[in-house]
Amino acid sequence: MSDIRERLARVRDRIANAARRARRDPASVRLVAVSKTFPIQDIRAAFEAGQRDFGENKVQEALQKIDAARDLDAAWHLVGHLQSNKARKAGASFAFIHSIDGVDLVKRLDEAAASAGRRPELLVQVDLAGETTKHGARPDELAGIFEAARQLKAARLIGLMLLPPATEDLEGARQYFTALHRLRDDLAARGIDQMMLRELSMGMSHDFEVAVEEGATIVRVGSAIFGERHYAQP
């Protein structure tokens, strides 16, 4: 527990310092602790250290943790790819879903949220690199998604999300963070409602400081808080 508390404090300090370098208010950056593969006791330790937002990649794993943590006033974020056949469960369970990549998914989530009496907040995952191994909407597909979002009854679209190509070169990552910020500004200039563009979810354990410098309002940090992940062998 003390290790998680200390690592969490260091991450918060690094976010604050990055925000100040960019002449931003550190309070304008939401930290999501990505708890995928980590046990519920680690989530509880982070919660006791003041963390309230937790991110998961897989719906089924997340639902087990959400159920085990019903006594915690936590906000759960789905940060991994969402298959359309899991939309009903996701729309009824998560406060934030970062991986919207099409009109059909927007509609399915809204229907699920309405049926469950929930109001999840959605972010569009944008594909700026054209990587075949990753998901996301191309920039030319965004207009249709935002048009569909205008018809939402329960869910709300609040911004954009990015997974840049994997690289240890922070300046290589920076160009993608800058590009997402510019894309957000271009969409606003073209008349997209500012309330649907207010969040930029970008930056993970190795590059979140650069993301904050380039305008991230949400960072998704896992190993820098919980430690190294140990994946089960197939």
What's the SSE blueprint?
Layout: H1 2-21, E1 30-34, H2 40-48, E2 53-56, H3 59-68, E3 75-78, H4 87-93, E4 96-100, H5 103-116, E5 121-126, H6 142-149, E6 156-162, H7 170-189, E7 199-201, H8 208-213, E8 218-221, H9 223-226
Parallel strand pairs: 1-2, 1-8, 2-3, 3-4, 4-5, 5-6, 6-7
Helix pairs in contact: 1-2, 4-5
Task: Give a written overview of the molecule.
By secondary structure, the chain is an alpha/beta fold. The chain is 42% helix and 16% strand. The chain has an 8-stranded parallel β-sheet. Helix 1 (2-21) packs across helix 2 and helix 4 (87-93) packs across helix 5 (103-116).
Q: What value does the Rg take, in angstroms? A: 17 Å
Major sheet attributes: 8 strands, parallel
Write out the strand line-up for the largest beta sheet, numbering strands in chain order. 7-6-5-4-3-2-1-8
Please give the share of residues in helix: 40-55%
Overall pLDDT level = 94
Number of helices: 9
Order of H and E elements? HEHEHEHEHEHEHEHEH
Report how far apart the termini are: 29 Å
Low-pLDDT ranges = none
Structural class: alpha/beta
Indicate the overall shape.
globular
Q: Per DSSP, what share of the residues sits in E-state strands of 2 or more residues? A: 15-25%
**Got a strand count?**
8
Task: Supply database-style keywords.
single chain; 234 residues; alpha/beta; 8-stranded parallel beta sheet; 9 helices; 16% strand; globular
Question: How would you briefly describe this protein structure?
Answer:
The protein is α/β, with parallel strands linked by helices.
